[in-house]
Amino acid sequence: MSSDQHPVIDSQLATSLKASKAPAISRAAAILRLLGKRSQPMGVQAIARELGLVPSTCLYVLRALAEEELVAFDPDTKRYALDAGVLTLARQWLRHDQFHELAQPLLDRLAREFGLTTLGAQLFGLDHIIVTAMSQSGEAFQLSTQVGSRFPALVSATGRCIAAFGGWSDAQLKPRFEKLRWDEAPSWEEWKAQVTEARETGIAVDAGHYISGVTVVAAPVWKTEGRPSHALVAIGIGSAMRGEGLPRLKETLLGASRSLSDQLSG
Amino acid sequence: MSSDQHPVIDSQLATSLKASKAPAISRAAAILRLLGKRSQPMGVQAIARELGLVPSTCLYVLRALAEEELVAFDPDTKRYALDAGVLTLARQWLRHDQFHELAQPLLDRLAREFGLTTLGAQLFGLDHIIVTAMSQSGEAFQLSTQVGSRFPALVSATGRCIAAFGGWSDAQLKPRFEKLRWDEAPSWEEWKAQVTEARETGIAVDAGHYISGVTVVAAPVWKTEGRPSHALVAIGIGSAMRGEGLPRLKETLLGASRSLSDQLSG
DNA sequence: CCTTGTCATTGCAAATATTGAACGTTATTC
DNA sequence: GAATAACGTTCAATATTTGCAATGACAAGG
User: What is the CATH number of the domain that holds B67?
Assistant: First the structure.
């Protein structure tokens, strides 16, 4: 694997390739992710360089992806970009995902009742979370996050959820914790205390740490025993989250997450 | 290629595999599409059988896809399904697609002004179209179609658009035309006349053929010279589309499609 | 107008992913 | 409850894809 030419190529790709018995797929996925990141279409060489691939291999992968309508090829400029095929897959996933289907009405109700933005997220271990459902109240200032967004696992209220109920050791948590970016980062001890509190109350709160002035509440959802698979999240601006509004919100969110867990495990 | 065991396996996959220099990707795409179709998670053998793949190869492809979070694997049931990774790709595509970005506000305005459902679609030759943008008025009966949906190319008003402006020969059109399913199918001559009218007026209409009682209007959008790349579509129920409403809608839709073509080609 | 650099693309040899059969395990049927 | 079928998985041989160097096309710059 000729790699160290460029400082940071793609360590994830590199490790995926070593072991896999279908490396073309790792390459394809890496290409799709790269094309997704870039707003401008890219040429073969640029892609190959950035991912540490051989140009010819990269070309063949791109051609195969283009055939499947997952990437678009412009014959004039010879540039590649994501294509609409990914949309179709996403829609199909949304149609069949139980969590999305069941969570959406709950999120809608919560958003309307409390006048805030609510999210449903799927948890991927200590790596990251993906927002798979969203609802916004009609209120003036709404914090917008789109379905499909990825966030680091341990950040904000969902992060405390994962830490509280995932059964991870401090040794696993600390290095990840230290890489996070917050508006107002808590200390490790402070954070640990908040995680403990989340474990005791069953629900996690981020009071302006991740984004200052913004309070985030997250409740875990279990699909199976073990660690939580999803989370319900409510995001509000200071004023809406002060006073007695917050306890009531926590209670309601917790109720929703419990009901959801029951439905999913059945 | 051991194929003819099962009546209809996947001819598209079969042809893709023959020529490709990255067949694993054709296989992966076929698997993703299959998993998208099915609402229930599937086992390795079931997938392999349905697609005419060798189980072991299928397993390796699935493992690779799972590693990339494009498919989810349930270790208990040993079943595979689509995973949320496809959502992230779709979101990235939406963020960067010019047509989506530019069409959305136009569609919103049209939907509100005329009280109907509007769509933006990307055209894929004579094969199919994919809905990439949508807007719904708040009105009572709204015809819902989701972003990411695929339709046969030649059906409804968009089909007449494609036939009118794509420069296809009758020999290419007719076999495709005959495979379509309509609520009230037009005859070939009838349809040809409507296509000609669309070519003359610049805009296509489907008056209750595709879905009875529903009128669909579609205007072509050009990204480059040659054939149209996209279409703007308005869908309304009978009453809203009768009288003088329809001419005004056609005029407005046509104006929007022209302005969009200008912006995209720039 | 020629040179130089970059780009996409191709041919060939070598590394390796695919195949099909065999294995152990789970689920189904009698 | 035993037998059987189906499943997921592993392994070694082979057909294939990958990687590299070379080619042709193109644009920028001298």
Answer: 1.10.10.10
- 3-class DSSP state of B223: coil
Distance CA A134, CA A146 (A): 7
What average pLDDT does range B207-213 have in this prediction? Answer: 95
CA distance B35 to B70: 11
pLDDT surpassing 80 at residue A12: no
CA of B84 to C1' of C26 (A): 29
Q: How big is the A-B interface in CB pairs under 8 Å?
A: 168
Domain assignment present for residue A179? The answer is yes
Q: What is the pLDDT of residue A7?
A: 36
Q: Which domain holds residue B101?
A: 97-265
Same domain (yes/no): B32, B65: yes
**Distances from the Cα of B263 to the Cα of B99, B224, B225, angstroms:** 9, 11, 13
Q: Are residues B133 and B197 in the same domain?
A: yes
Residues in a beta bridge with B233: B119, B218
Q: How confident is the model over A28-51, as pLDDT tens digits?
A: 999 999 999 998 999 999 999 999
In chain A, the number of structural domains is 2
Q: Does one domain contain both A118 and A149?
A: yes
pLDDT at A166: 97
Q: Looking at residue B46, what DSSP letter applies?
A: H
Domain contains A134:
yes
Residues B236 and B175 both lie in one domain: yes
pLDDT of residue B266: 72
Which residue in A57, A69, A224 is closest to B124 by CB distance? A69
CATH number of the domain where residue A160 is located: 3.30.450.40
The pTM score is 0.93
Last residue of a domain, one of A86, A109, A130: A86
CA angle B57, B59, B60 (to 5 degrees): 65
Kindly list the residues from chain B whose CB atom is less than 8 angstroms away from the CB atom of residue A38: 96
Residue B92 lies in a domain: no
Among chain A residues, the shortest Cα distance to B92 is held by: A36
Q: Where are the alpha helices (DSSP H) in chain A?
A: 11-19, 23-37, 44-51, 55-67, 85-96, 98-114, 156-165, 170-178, 188-201, 245-265
pLDDT score at B77:
93
Residues A157 and A251 in one domain: yes
Token digits of residue B257: 């499609």
